[in-house]
């Protein structure tokens, strides 16, 4: 496998706060890579630097071997990096179809092609029944799907998903997991920030753990779950037991 | 509804074109022409603010630039009016580009952007009022020539039809834009700039394109004003009145809709005129500024009961009626 994305010693400082502290990470092409960590660990901040919404205080971001650290967000989107927002950002006044079409216009200049592409993406994420609805009228689950659909419509090579499962009920999560797996299986690499552990375990090939801005562990999900440092710094005892049980049940 | 829009545009323009055949009084023709001029200015505003979400309080800057360029090019440089027109439009575009470049580069949004546009228009007004190049406070008189070759018409109907033609062109342009990638980008920037950028939209470029086009359109309204009244001064050309009417018409008519500026200008100026003559009839004399009261009341009613304007109300009504 080749490397699609690398963060090299990336640091982001907000005044006195080190939100991301010398963090490094690699995402292999074709993988689903997880990024986990407690609240306020700096996961979203790292995403904003990968997607071009903030420049790191120091460090480099490389995409397909090129240094993209200084490129603005829309250029990175054109190069194949798409992100979703943890706090969903729908174009509330537009229909679901028009929302997705904005993404589709990136690779399709004509209206007919963009609208067709948007419809195909909506079908892929299960929004096709809601195409004509105003985005503002969607449920939480619907809005999360819309975030995903818009990003997918840009036909990215790397998809950055920031807690797309948060706020969904267990059955909605169960519905989403195959959708994400299908996206990966048609060649889109995914970097996913997620608190829903069951999903991380099921989806990810590799997991990175960020705590207080520092990358404290990485590896296969099973290994990371057993890492004593991770358990101490992040998971807490209850969660550790749950994951242990889950792991044993699987093996 | 959507596929019906081009049809309704054609019907509306045809009806407007037929109006002078029914109403032949000079005052009526003057009024209708004035409505077209304000509509054109408002269409410029609507493209930038209604579609792009960038609220300007200073569209007088573009209107006045068009009006003054039209007058100065003819009077000072002896350029034919039909040639002066595209030059004045281009100047409006340049002012739009320049103003946009400065404000959007500096990431100005919302009320900050609005205040900068207001300041721009006021600076232009003060300069035009003081400079000898613009003939200072005396204003500029364009000599009467009354020939179509000089963009002046013996028959008032012809001027109205020309003004209507410009409005119709911008209606078609706006409709076309609303169905292109640029239009989608513009609306996306209005709804949520961050999300738009994440989807590959160059927000700066999109806004810059919109304000350049907006400047050209509103400058065209200024050109028509000069040719209609053959006199301008700083307060007519760069005064706040046109900034206010250019934004009130689309707000009342429906921001970000193709027909909103036209519907709003009709309603705004129509009711203003009706009130003025009503008061004149009742009191035997006119009360200056009574139409402004009407504008204020209309705005309040709109904000309270039809936040999407007249076009929004029509849309809601017709979609409720449909099965
Ligand atoms: N623009 C900003 N200005 C100042 N501080 C910020 C800014 N953005 C994030 N922070 C701070 O940086 C730290 C990391 O925040 P971040 O949102 O990246 O965490 P996170 O890992 O995504 O958390 P969560 O799981 O809650 O989403 C937090 O302490 C946050 O308050
Ligand atoms: Mg976060």
Structure in words:
The complex is a heterodimer of chains A (251) and B (323). The mean pLDDT of chain A is 91. In chain A, the strands form 2 sheets. Chain A has a 6-stranded mixed beta sheet, with helices on both faces. Chain A has 251 residues and is an alpha/beta fold. Chain A folds into 2 domains: 3-80 and 158-250, Rossmann fold, CATH 3.40.50; 89-155. Chain A contains 9 helices and 10 strands. Chain B is mostly helical and 323 residues long. Chain B has a single domain (7-258), classed as Orthogonal Bundle (ABC transporter involved in vitamin B12 uptake, BtuC), CATH 1.10.3470. Chain B has 14 helices and 2 strands. Chain B has helices at residues 5-22, 26-51, 60-75, 81-105, 110-130, 156-178, 181-191, 193-198, 203-229, 234-238, 240-253, 260-283, 290-305, 309-321, and strands at residues 140-141, 231-232. A two-stranded antiparallel sheet of chain B has the order 1-2. In chain B, helix 11 runs parallel beside helix 14 (309-321). Bound molecules: adenosine-5'-triphosphate and magnesium ion.
Quick summary:
Chain A has 251 residues and is of the alpha/beta class. Chain A contains nine helices and ten strands.
């Amino acid at each position: 496998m080749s490397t699609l994305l690398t963060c090299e010693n990336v640091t982001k400082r907000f005044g006195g706060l080190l939100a991301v502290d010398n963090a490094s990470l690699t995402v292999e092409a074709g993988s689903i890579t997880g990024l986990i960590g407690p609240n306020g660990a700096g996961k979203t901040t790292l995403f904003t630097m990968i997607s071009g919404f903030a420049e790191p205080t120091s460090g480099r971001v490389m995409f397909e071997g090129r240094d993209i650290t200084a490129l603005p967000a829309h250029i990175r989107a054109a190069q194949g990096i798409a992100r979703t927002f943890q706090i969903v950002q729908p174009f509330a006044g537009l229909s679901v179809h028009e929302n997705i079409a904005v993404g589709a216009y990136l690779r399709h200049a004509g209206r007919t092609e963009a609208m067709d592409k948007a419809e195909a993406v909506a079908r892929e994420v299960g929004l096709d029944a809601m195409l004509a609805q105003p985005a503002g009228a969607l449920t939480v689950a619907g809005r999360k799907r819309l975030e995903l659909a818009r990003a997918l419509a840009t036909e990215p090579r790397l998809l950055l998903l920031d807690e797309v499962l948060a706020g969904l009920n267990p059955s909605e999560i169960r519905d989403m997991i195959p959708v994400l797996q299908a996206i990966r299986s048609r060649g889109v690499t995914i970097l996913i920030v997620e608190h829903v552990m069951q999903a991380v375990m099921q989806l990810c090939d590799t997991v990175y753990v960020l705590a207080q801005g520092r990358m404290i562990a990485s590896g296969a999900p099973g290994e990371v779950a057993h890492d004593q440092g991770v358990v101490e710094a992040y998971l807490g005892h209850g969660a550790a037991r749950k994951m242990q049980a889950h792991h044993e049940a699987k093996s | 509804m959507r596929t019906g829009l081009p049809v309704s545009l054609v019907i509306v323009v045809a009806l407007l074109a037929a109006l002078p055949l029914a109403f032949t009084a000079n005052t009526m023709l003057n009024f209708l022409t004035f409505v077209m001029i304000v509509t054109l200015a408002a269409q410029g505003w609507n493209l930038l603010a209604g579609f792009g979400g960038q609220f300007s309080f200073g569209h007088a800057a573009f209107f006045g630039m068009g009006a003054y360029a039209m007058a100065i090019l003819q009077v000072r440089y002896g350029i034919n009016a039909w040639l002066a027109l595209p030059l004045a439009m281009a100047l409006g575009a340049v002012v739009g580009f320049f103003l946009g470049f400065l404000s959007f580069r500096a990431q100005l949004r919302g009320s900050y952007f609005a205040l900068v546009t207001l300041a721009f228009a006021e600076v232009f007004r003060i300069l035009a009022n003081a400079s000898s190049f613009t003939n200072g406070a005396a204003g500029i008189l364009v000599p009467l020539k009354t020939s179509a070759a000089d963009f002046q018409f013996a028959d008032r109907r012809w001027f109205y039809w020309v003004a209507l033609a410009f409005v119709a062109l911008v209606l078609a342009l706006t409709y076309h834009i609303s169905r292109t990638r640029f239009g989608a980008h513009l609306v996306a920037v209005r709804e949520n700039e961050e999300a738009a950028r994440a989807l590959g939209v160059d927000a700066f470029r999109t806004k810059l394109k919109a304000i350049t086009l907006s400047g050209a359109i509103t400058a065209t309204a200024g050109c028509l004003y000069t040719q209609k009244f053959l006199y301008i001064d700083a307060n007519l050309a760069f005064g706040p009145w046109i900034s206010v009417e250019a934004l009130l018409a689309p707000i009342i008519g429906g921001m970000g809709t193709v027909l909103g500026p036209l519907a709003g200008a009709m309603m705004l100026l129509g009711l203003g005129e009706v009130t003025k003559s009503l008061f004149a009839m009742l009191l035997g004399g006119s009360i200056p500024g009574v139409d402004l009261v009407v504008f204020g009341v209309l705005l309040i009613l709109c904000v309270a009961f039809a936040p999407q304007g007249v076009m929004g109300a029509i849309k809601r009504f017709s979609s409720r009626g449909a099965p």
